[in-house]
Design a protein that fits this description.
Helix content: 40-55%
Distance between the termini: 36 Å
Strand content: 5-15%
Number of helices: 16
Strand order of the largest sheet: 1-2-3
Oligomer: single chain
């Protein structure tokens, strides 16, 4: 198993250091991530993360699209948690334009965001277990995640990329049966969660492979700007939903799970607890969901209702201008962030008054979590590398922007 020291001398390294490429085409690197490992036998001497194989260039692509067209690009960044990307981008534009989203739209957004958080954590849990040869858990998690994908499909027509957000609200109202379907999911989810907890939390193999592995302490979190379950797994209760509340999170009762050990097991415990907290938040949001508008009543930002078009020339003109040209936010710059399943997800936006972003920059949580692998893997065995990667849960679309 792993040794606690990173000192090559203390580790008794030989002169025969082997270079090994792990990835970019490897199922355990969670995408096209390449790690250049230098090994003394099976002992990791050094690690160099190499990124850039995805070549998305999304940030520059966004600067060539109108503000509404950007939605179809940003939810591909974190393809396991697209709603978080949409909320981060939409709320940044709304902050620039000083728009107040209607309460019903905020609550619906919040429900979808927490569903996406559970969905993302289920993928993380299933793939993490698969890498330790626990394939049945992978199947259980995917089966449960499919229920959430069905809910996204019901509300938006799409499963992984809902593209349901609009500046000032959401695309359309909920179907009549959506709330009951979410309640049915919330009724079945605790049983599935308990099964996973029984299978893993006190499992000897799971504990042995995760405890003491890939320790990230608070100082390293500070140096690399780690957020999300990584920093909460190091004992810091930093959660954007609590620190900078949005969508009315300050009106909900929920805890921020914190475990001080900083190892892969602590990050596992944080995400498991977060799934329970998300289910509780959704339950509270359903109770708060009241009838009302789902987008702002500003014809220069939101499309006019369809029933106005046959009777109002002004509505037709607004429709034509928005569809053909888009909106024109005021000149300025703004930064806004949300708490995605992986941590702080921020958008920095510069507007020159045109119908396209002059500059769009994404502060993604996965980027620092990939870079910190350089420090935390020294002195571990090769077999621990896949555990470490899984424990920080990177999405390479979130890294190669």
């Amino acid at each position: 198993m792993s040794k606690s020291t990173n000192n090559p001398t203390e580790l008794g390294l030989s002169d025969e250091i082997m270079e090994l490429n792990l990835g970019p085409q490897h199922p355990s690197t969670h995408g096209v991530l390449r790690l250049v490992l230098h090994l003394d036998g099976e002992l990791v001497v050094s690690v160099e993360p190499v990124i850039g194989y995805l070549h998305t260039g999304v940030e520059k692509e966004c600067e060539t699209r109108s503000y509404h067209q950007v939605f179809t690009l940003v939810d591909r960044l974190d393809y396991l948690s697209g709603p978080a990307e949409e909320e981060a981008y939409a709320s940044t534009v709304e902050k620039l334009m000083q728009i107040e989203v209607p309460e019903r739209a905020q609550t619906i957004r919040l429900i979808l965001l927490e569903l996406a958080r559970i969905s993302s954590h289920l993928i993380w849990l299933g793939t993490s277990a698969l890498e330790l040869n626990m394939s049945s858990i992978f199947m259980y998690c995917f089966a449960e995640r499919e229920k959430i994908m069905d809910l996204f499909e019901e509300v938006s027509g799409a499963r992984m990329f809902p593209t349901f957000w609009r500046v000032g609200g959401i695309a359309r109202d909920l179907n009549p049966g959506f709330e009951d379907h979410v309640k049915a999911f919330l009724k079945s989810f605790p049983s599935m969660w308990k099964d996973m907890d029984n299978l893993l939390t006190h499992n000897y193999v799971w504990n042995t492979r995760l405890k003491g592995i890939a320790v990230i302490d608070q100082e390293q979190c500070k140096q690399y700007m780690c957020t999300g379950p990584v920093i909460r797994g190091a004992g810091v209760a930093y959660d954007i939903r609590k620190v900078y509340p949005y969508l009315g999170y300050e009106n909900y009762t929920f805890d921020v799970p914190v475990f001080p050990e900083g190892d892969a097991y602590a990050r596992y415990m944080v995400r498991m607890e977060e799934m329970q907290q998300s289910a509780s938040i959704i339950q509270q949001a359903l109770a708060k969901l009241k009838p009302g508008p789902i987008i702002i009543d500003d014809r220069k930002v939101a499309l006019p209702p369809r029933h106005e078009l046959p009777r109002s020339m002004e509505a037709v003109i607004h429709q034509f201008k928005l569809v053909s040209e888009g909106m024109h936010p005021p000149v300025g710059e703004v930064y806004n962030c949300v708490e995605s399943a992986r941590g702080e997800l921020g958008y920095y936006l510069v507007s020159d008054g045109s119908n396209k972003p002059y500059r769009l920059r994404v502060r993604s949580p996965s980027f620092p979590h990939v870079q910190v692998l350089r420090d935390i893997l020294k002195g571990h065995m090769v077999a621990d590398v896949v555990v470490a990667i899984a424990s920080v849960d990177p999405i390479l679309g979130d890294v190669d922007r």
